[in-house]
Amino acid sequence: MKAAISSLTTTTSKNLNLHYSSATLSRSALLNPKPLSRSPSFLPPIPTKIHHTRIDFSGKSHFHTNNFSPVMASSYKPEQARAPPALPLPAPPVTKAIYFYVYILFEIGLCQLSVTPDKERNIAHARKAIEEAAQRGAQLVLLPEIWNSPYSNDSFPIYAEDIDAGGDASPSTAMLSEAARLLKITIVGGSIPERSGDKLYNTCCVFGADGKLKAKHRKIHLFDIDIPGKITFIESKTLTAGQSPTIVDTDVGRIGIGICYDLRFQELAMIYAARGAHLLCYPGAFNMTTGPLHWELLQRARAADNQLYVATCSPARDTESGYVAWGHSTLVGPFGEVLATTEHEETIIIAEIDYSLVELRRTNLPLQKQRRGDLYQLVDVQRLNSE
Amino acid sequence: MKAAISSLTTTTSKNLNLHYSSATLSRSALLNPKPLSRSPSFLPPIPTKIHHTRIDFSGKSHFHTNNFSPVMASSYKPEQARAPPALPLPAPPVTKAIYFYVYILFEIGLCQLSVTPDKERNIAHARKAIEEAAQRGAQLVLLPEIWNSPYSNDSFPIYAEDIDAGGDASPSTAMLSEAARLLKITIVGGSIPERSGDKLYNTCCVFGADGKLKAKHRKIHLFDIDIPGKITFIESKTLTAGQSPTIVDTDVGRIGIGICYDLRFQELAMIYAARGAHLLCYPGAFNMTTGPLHWELLQRARAADNQLYVATCSPARDTESGYVAWGHSTLVGPFGEVLATTEHEETIIIAEIDYSLVELRRTNLPLQKQRRGDLYQLVDVQRLNSE
Questions:
Q1: Cβ-defined contact of B336 to A375 (cutoff 8 Å)
Q2: What is the DSSP string of A307-328?
């Protein structure tokens, strides 16, 4: 199964260098013992002191009652609700020791950047933000959609870079690679316009703590919408859609990638969950119409329905630009709860992710075991074909 | 295709009498010309005066730009994102003439009822609420989950009725049938405990304006959850799960039915949307833990993701009862916007549904044409097998 995922991800880039760190104590384990994150008051209390005993990443959660009937559930074929069957959640490689306990947590940085028509400035500016996020403890940094260029069909061809050629042909990703290596962090590099042959893509690069490109996601669902008098944008006028979902094993867990409009397609998040994702990262630039309507709703829904973390990162709002972004970069927990968010100004959010909550919520609400594979089935076409 | 749906629905009850009203002027067309519903201010304006010209229920929405490339979209096989392929939205049989224009709208009544251990009182009380809702203009009335009985595993066997036997064996549904016939309205009758042979179900009956049982939905996903210290409930201790999704053509459109925990499974809503539903009705009794966490989130997500109306109806809150319901019955529009809601006290919500908005929102955001059938596919097992 793991081989299947790797082979899929590999198809997205020649430069992939997938590896999977085993669960060891992280470098900041004893340097940085912080209090556990607090959930909103209406959430059930998290039994923090027994995390290390109650978490089971074998994929076999234990239901804490004798009343539950596994016989009944199995007759509904929950394992068939996904084809191929859902993978068990992998053991996250991120751990932190606090006194006698080992926690599965780390900090994420969401850099809600201001973006200008000056590409050099955008790159230098993003670098500073990444450095600040790392300095404040982030082991994973997420950037916005199209952070090196104005968001417009006129700009995409001008600002596009040849990522596969690398070096001078792609100063934006060269910076990301160097920053990741020097800071020893994972970077989900938002997105930039990518030129590949005669085609343009909206592309997200993921760099590991060694500076190597681990995955490249080309936006699968292009942003072609028409709400008369409000927002009309036809991304397919200039861009080509990617051909593959992208999920990648990093030092901070298994991460599924989507870009902006990809968030609207619940099937993609469902596929990632079935491939064992701990976290979905969506760089995105919703606008002043779709932002208030759907931005928070969709990310909370993806998190709650799939019982995993969702992080989004938007550009800061610039009311003078042709496309005005909504902002509101957000981290959502596996119960669909907003853990950290902001308004529309430029800012860096640092927030804690605790993967033990993913397993806990799946024990609270064992949706995976309750699905009706006898009635519906979601097929992951590429994973199925690769088996 | 239509035959496939009918045959599926028919399997849920011997008493089904499916029919599909053609789009004619409704009886209240000229009697009751009300102003159109107003959307929240952040929503794009609805071009009300051209509804009659821009709505196309052939399933072929027109994209209002020359930039959109259907060739590109078709290479992604959006029609294969559902198996069998999604049905076109049927012409809703509900219309209302106002001056020279014909609108596709009607009023729904959500009866958030108080429920007591006195079954006779519950039935009489529900009847009064239905009558009041109809008097206030509702052509469709929705009741809460388990409205004739306390919500508890101890009560289900005691309050259960033999719906198929009817008459004295099921006083609750006999009342619903009579009320529907006398008031000439459609009733989605919340749910009651049903006894069938030696099994118990959590069952929703849909009655047409002629008083006939049109569909019977047995809760497909049983409520077995365990959030220690907050809420633990194992419905499967007494109940058996239903074996079929339920979608039904009524005088007020094509309606997909789910009961409470069914709302958590996005696949069911996706199946209903692909079968051409205008509206999903979920009688439900979320509790004081899951209510604030997920009740509104899930119904808004189902509506926005599937671009259709979602109506929910809860019992009123009784803090003295063993299971304390969240309340907050709600109507959500096809952009995921809350159109009408309430707190937890007993009340009747009357709100307007305008199906032309379903088509409008699908034109604004043509998700159906943008899905990646080359990457994922949701299979409706029963519909596929019936073809």
A1: no
A2: TSEEEEE-PPP-TTSSS-B---
Question: Coil, helix or strand for B46?
Answer: coil
Close Cβ partners of A298 (under 8 Å, ≥ 6 residues apart) = A263, A264, B301, B304, B305
How far apart (Å, rounded) are the C-alpha atoms in residues A11 and A3? 13
Chain A residues with CB inside 8 Å of B76's CB? 241
Asked if residue A110 is part of any domain, the answer here is yes
The 3-state DSSP composition of chain B as helix, strand, coil percent (nearest 5) reads 30, 25, 45
A359 neighbors A104 (Cβ within 8 angstroms): no
Distance from C-alpha of B217 to C-alpha of B171, rounded to nearest angstrom: 18
Residues 6+ apart with CB under 8 A from A31: none
Name residue A330's beta-bridge partners: A312, A341
Domain count, chain A: 1
Question: What is the ipTM metric for this complex?
Answer: 0.85
A191 within a domain of the structure (yes/no): yes
Q: Are A293 and B335 in contact (CB under 8 A)?
A: yes
Q: Which of A214, A216, A219, A296 is catalytic?
A: A219
Query: Which amino acid is it at B263?
Result: L
Instruction: Please report whether residue B70 resides in a domain.
Output: no
Look at residue B273 in the predicted model and tell me its pLDDT: 98
Q: Which residue of B has its CA nearest to A290?
A: B43
DSSP state of B100: T
For B117, the domain range is 95-385
Asked if B380 and A379 come within 8 Å (Cβ–Cβ), the reply is no
Whether residues B378 and A376 touch (CB distance < 8 A) is answered with yes
Q: Which long-range contacts (CB under 8 A, 24 or more apart) does A48-53 make?
A: A49/A101, A51/A101, A51/A102, A51/A103, A51/A104, A51/A356, A52/A101, A52/A102, A52/A103
Within a domain: residue A346?
Answer: yes
The CATH code of the domain that includes A132 is: 3.60.110.10
First-last CA distance in chain B: 8
In this complex, do A241 and B76 lie within 8 Å of one another by their Cβ atoms?
yes
Q: What is the largest CA-CA distance in chain A?
A: 63
Residue type, A233: F
Q: Kindly report, residue by residue over A79-135, the tens digit of the pLDDT.
A: 999 999 999 999 988 776 777 776 779 999 999 999 999 999 999 999 999 999 999
Residues from chain B that touch A44, judged by Cβ atoms under 8 A, are: 227-230, 289
- C-alpha Rg value of chain A to the nearest Å: 20
Partners of B65 on chain A (C-beta within 8 Å) are 226, 232, 234
Helix (H, G, I), strand (E, B) or coil at A350: strand
3-state helix, strand, coil in chain A (%, to 5): 30, 25, 45
Peptide bond into A35 cis (omega under 30): no
For residue A358, give the 3-state DSSP assignment: helix
Cβ B280 vs Cβ B258: under 8 Å: yes
**DSSP line for A44-112:** PPP-GGGHHHH--TTS-PPPS-SS--HHHHHHT-GGGGEESPPPPPPPPSEEEEETTEEE-EEEEEEEE
In a mutational test of the A interface, the residue from B39, B379, B382 whose CB has the highest number of chain A CBs within 10 Å is B379
A235 in active site: no
B267 tagged catalytic? no
Given the residues B216, B219, B296, B313, select the one marked as catalytic.
B219
- Give the pLDDT of chain B (387 residues) as one tens digit per residue: 333 343 333 333 322 222 222 222 232 322 333 333 334 445 555 443 333 333 445 444 333 333 444 445 568 999 999 999 999 999 988 776 677 776 779 999 999 999 999 999 999 999 999 999 999 999 999 999 999 999 999 999 999 999 999 999 999 999 999 999 999 999 999 999 999 999 999 999 999 999 999 999 999 999 999 999 999 999 999 999 999 999 999 999 999 999 999 999 999 999 999 999 999 999 999 999 999 999 999 999 999 999 999 999 999 999 999 999 999 999 999 999 999 999 999 999 999 999 999 999 999 999 999 999 999 999 999 999 998
